[in-house]
Design a protein that fits this description.
By secondary structure, this protein is of the alpha+beta class. The chain contains seven helices and 17 strands. It folds into two domains: 151 residues, 2,3-Dihydroxybiphenyl 1,2-Dioxygenase, domain 1; 146 residues, Roll (2,3-Dihydroxybiphenyl 1,2-Dioxygenase, domain 1).
Length: 339
């Protein structure tokens, strides 16, 4: 049986009411290859990320034409993109020259379902916070928070949410000794890299049906966070979160944030487009991604944006954009095993 046929069976099992059958085969993501977002002014965004957060600009390109329209789901799209790097991780910024999309809602909250952030690891929280204050960065947390010792998986982590010039949420995070990767303990630089991207999930099990069972990411950790420190970090009164971290063999993790309380987060717009500033996308290297279109006919836990694989960007190869059950964008890039 060819891979696409097996994956079609997988999708049927995922949609079964019992949920007892775990798929035997997945798309098998081999890497999370970075995250990105749509910005209103690329030059301003690049200046912020390079001068304040010390990213390095590595590439700039412009895209238009039918293949790019099909990839993004935006008719008449023409866009500039810049690739940035911090440590081993990359961030992609995209400005749509035409058509322009909608801004991030000014009242967007951390428990709204469209919420996504990138977590930047710092070597010194106090110095990093002072730097952000010096540059007038907008607060999304009331201030840096130290997660309490009773929360064993998160004990001693210090974190702070803030916003970039377009209102995108970002996090700086400092691991205490013994937590996180060894490279996050280095002291030579202030901003070290991207540990993960966090997304709100309205239903963790439903999200796992995509990220774990179809895309093949492994479960790397779980936690349940609450009390005043978490409330002030997320700026959500009474916040209680189920946190589930998933990882591929390389690249930043994907962290699912399910708000057990409060349950009043707003769903993402049904008509969310790639040119809207609320749009983020996480890029996955997935050799089996060409089977998505067989899966799509079997009511899988994702929605298609790209009606077929496209080669809009020859530098990454064939790709497709999909959305998870809560509207978060995933760009799946087809590359052969061993690439």
């Amino acid at each position: 049986m060819r891979i696409s046929a097996v994956l079609a069976v997988t999708a049927f099992l995922l949609s079964s009411p019992t949920g007892a059958n775990k798929p035997a085969l997945s798309v098998a993501t081999i890497a999370v290859n970075g995250v990105g977002m749509t910005v209103s002014n690329l030059d301003r965004a690049v200046e912020f990320y390079t001068s304040v957060l010390t990213f390095e600009k590595t590439a700039e390109r412009e895209f238009s034409g039918r293949e790019y329209e099909l990839l993004t789901g935006v008719f008449g799209a023409r866009a500039r993109t810049v690739q940035l790097r911090l440590g081993n991780e990359s961030l992609e910024l995209t400005e749509f020259l035409t058509p322009k999309g909608r801004p991030v809602p000014p009242d967007m909250r951390s428990n709204d379902h469209a919420f996504q952030h990138a977590a930047l690891i710092v070597s010194d929280m106090d110095r990093a916070y002072a730097r952000l204050r010096q540059h007038g960065v907008g607060h999304a947390s009331s201030g840096p928070q130290r997660l309490p010792d009773w929360n064993v998986n998160a004990a001693g982590i210090r974190a702070f949410y803030f916003r970039d010039p377009d209102g995108h949420f970002l996090e700086i995070l400092q691991f205490p000794p013994g937590k996180g990767e060894a490279r996050w303990q280095q002291k030579e630089r202030l901003f070290l890299g991207i540990d993960h991207t966090a997304i709100v999930s309205s239903d963790t099990e439903r999200s796992l049906a995509l990220y774990r069972d179809v895309l093949g990411l492994r479960l790397a950790g779980t936690s349940e966070n609450y009390e005043i420190e978490q409330e002030h970090l997320n700026n959500v009164f009474g916040a209680r979160l189920r946190i589930t971290t998933l990882r591929a063999a390389s690249g930043p993790g994907i962290e699912l944030l399910e708000y057990l309380a409060p349950r009043d987060g707003r769903p993402a717009p049904l008509d969310l487009k790639a040119n809207d500033l609320t749009h983020w996308q996480t890029t996955l290297i997935a050799p089996g991604a060409d089977a998505l279109y067989d899966l799509a006919s079997s009511r899988p836990p994702f929605g298609l944006v790209s009606p077929r694989l496209t080669t809009a960007d020859p530098s990454i190869g064939a790709a497709a954009l999909i959305r998870d059950p809560d509207g978060h964008g995933l760009r799946l890039v087809v590359k052969p095993l061993g690439h």
